[in-house]
Amino acid sequence: MRVISVRELNLFYGKQQALHDINLDVDSHAITALIGPSGCGKSTFLRTLNRMNDSIAHTKITGSVKVFDEDIYSPQVDVEGLRKRIGMVFQHPNPFPKSIYDNITYGPKLHGLTDRDQLDEIVENSLKAAALWEEVKDVLKKPATGLSGGQQQRLCIARALAVQPQILLMDEPTSALDPISTAKIEELLENLKATYTIVIVTHNMQQAARISDKTAFFLNGVLVEVDETSTIFQNPADKRTEDYITGRFG
Ligand SMILES: Nc1ncnc2c1ncn2[C@@H]1O[C@H](COP(=O)(O)OP(=O)(O)OP(=O)(O)O)[C@@H](O)[C@H]1O
């Protein structure tokens, strides 16, 4: 099933056009990887999917982004509600300077949940889903900032899951992590896709090849090609994709 449908999307930072006529569909319960050289517009595109670009001054968008058939740029859209449905995890783990427990309950409390038992359950379920529960279950009241980088990133994933999103956007979630933490998060994403739809920006082509079902290749703000990941890496249709994945540039 198609969850996100982007049509003729253009994005301008002031006079500079960063995205040109993007058309892309994202399937449910799959991992879609966005790859391409630095500055090609991957992060900009990712931010358009939950309106994170709203907070950047002088940004203009044309075209449409539909999530579950709803145009997310229509004036009636409740942006806070939208971001509850479409969670985001960033490149550098950014836990709040609070306890592990309070990091997870922050979102649910913001949305009005106060029942202690329900909050406890959310903490346990989210940490289990993010494969962190066993490591932290006895130190839930300790500061999140005391965790390792890889644990902090899994905590940020758990925090995103705590408000029960339908879609997870991830902007290079492992680029600041060591290989063991990266492997743990990749394994985690494989498991999460049974429940969530995931769109991930990655600089690491092997990572895209390992974990994603579909891969979209961006170059200079243009979506050059999107296809099954195996096709993109073994038999791309466009010469520019082939040049990039074989390391001829970027
Ligand atoms: N907040 C901003 N204001 C103005 N221009 C921006 C802003 N963010 C990005 N850009 C420009 O838009 C273009 C695309 O940048 P973007 O960060 O989306 O690329 P990227 O592919 O994610 O790059 P990287 O892999 O280096 O993170 C670049 O030319 C960049 O300079």
UniProtKB/TrEMBL annotation:
> Carries keyword Transport?
yes
The answer, when asked if Transferase is one of the entry's keywords, is no
Name of the protein this chain belongs to? Phosphate ABC transporter ATP-binding protein
**What GO CC annotations are associated with the protein?**
membrane
| PROSITE patterns listed in its UniProt record | ABC_TRANSPORTER_1, ABC_TRANSPORTER_2
All copies of the ABC transporter domain together span 1-245
**Mind listing the UniProt keywords for this protein, alphabetically?**
ATP-binding, Nucleotide-binding, Transport
